[in-house]
């Protein structure tokens, strides 16, 4: 059941899109002094080694972060993303890739809280070990906040179920990241149900849902169902690097954000043409940006 390992896919074009958006959501939350909580329902291992057997066999990072590495004069939100990856590779050689838990930990403040869920037996051990190493590094360098303890909590649990007990967060400010593997088509139903329940508990929360763009009906229907569920503003951005190679592999993915920062669309409009051009195969890169609300018709931007 739990065969999915993100190590095969770490740093690919879908991760670039997901993590670039995540960093902007965190930056927006950081504009106010009040504390917030980030909940990651499918945290993974936290850090990935790009020269490991998993990553090197698939080579998927070559479709994403490897193409960005060393680029200069990049759009602002791409630069923010690269800054986080560079921090994990101080030698300048691209060897490690931060997953969403480590990206969040880097950008969150001492007063903020990070809650991580992971079910895979191997990945949960790696996640805990990676955060222990991070805490030791912080302590050795005199960093005041520590990765573990009240600030960061890790649970081996179903993130869909665990989400319910955490909403609303005590500060009434928060971001929920939902990015299951979608290997089981029931994940699409679970995402919809989780968002529906979460908005009843925490309507003002920010929700970021990653999803693959595939031929299967459930994948095509998910964003439309999320639009109907959204109780307020939403924004959808997709990135495609071309047609699937011989009908295999992920070539397109999207992020659906409920209660997005008002600044996010403009930032994406500047970055996505550049990103699609760089990552697209043989000039076939495409993107789409849609936005709307519970009461306002969809506005579309695409290239």
Describe the structure concisely.
This protein is α/β, with parallel strands linked by helices. It contains ten helices and eleven strands.
Can you put this structure into words, describing what you see?
- With 303 residues, the chain is an alpha/beta fold.
- It has a single domain (6-227), classed as Vaccinia Virus protein VP39 (Rossmann fold).
- It contains ten helices and eleven strands.
- A nine-stranded mixed β-sheet has the order 5-4-1-6-7-9-8-10-11, with helices on both faces. Strands 2-3 form a two-stranded antiparallel sheet.
- α1 packs across α4 (76-87), α1 packs parallel to α5 and α7 packs parallel to α8 (186-201).
- The longest helix has 20 residues, at 121-140.
- The N and C termini lie far apart (38 Å).
- The mean pLDDT is 90.
């Amino acid at each position: 059941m739990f065969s999915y390992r993100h190590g095969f896919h770490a740093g690919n074009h879908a991760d670039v899109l997901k993590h670039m958006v995540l960093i902007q959501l965190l930056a927006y939350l950081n504009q106010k002094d009040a504390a917030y909580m980030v909940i990651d329902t499918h945290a993974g291992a936290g850090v990935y080694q790009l020269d490991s057997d998993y990553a090197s066999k698939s080579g998927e990072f070559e479709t994403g972060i490897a193409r960005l590495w060393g680029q200069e004069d990049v759009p602002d939100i791409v630069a923010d993303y690269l800054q986080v990856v560079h921090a994990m590779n101080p030698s300048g050689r691209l060897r490690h890739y931060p997953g969403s838990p480590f990206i969040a930990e880097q950008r969150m403040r001492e007063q903020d809280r990070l809650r991580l869920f992971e079910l895979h037996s191997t990945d949960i051990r790696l996640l805990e070990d990676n955060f222990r190493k991070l805490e030791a590094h912080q302590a050795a360098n005199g960093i005041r906040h520590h990765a573990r303890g009240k600030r960061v909590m890790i649970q081996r649990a179903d993130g869909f179920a665990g989400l319910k007990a955490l909403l609303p967060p005590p500060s009434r400010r928060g971001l929920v990241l939902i990015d299951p593997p979608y290997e089981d088509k029931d994940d699409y139903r679970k995402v919809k149900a989780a968002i529906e329940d979460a908005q009843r508990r925490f309507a003002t929360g920010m929700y970021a849902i990653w999803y693959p763009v595939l031929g299967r009906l459930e994948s095509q229907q998910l964003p439309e169902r999320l639009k109907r569920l959204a109780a307020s503003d939403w924004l959808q951005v997709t990135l495609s690097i071309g047609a699937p190679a011989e009908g295999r592999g992920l070539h397109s993915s999207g992020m659906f954000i409920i209660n997005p920062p008002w600044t996010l669309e403009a930032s994406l409009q500047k970055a996505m043409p550049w990103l699609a051009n760089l990552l697209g195969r043989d000039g076939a890169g495409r993107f789409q940006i849609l936005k709307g609300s519970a009461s306002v018709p969809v506005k579309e931007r695409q290239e």
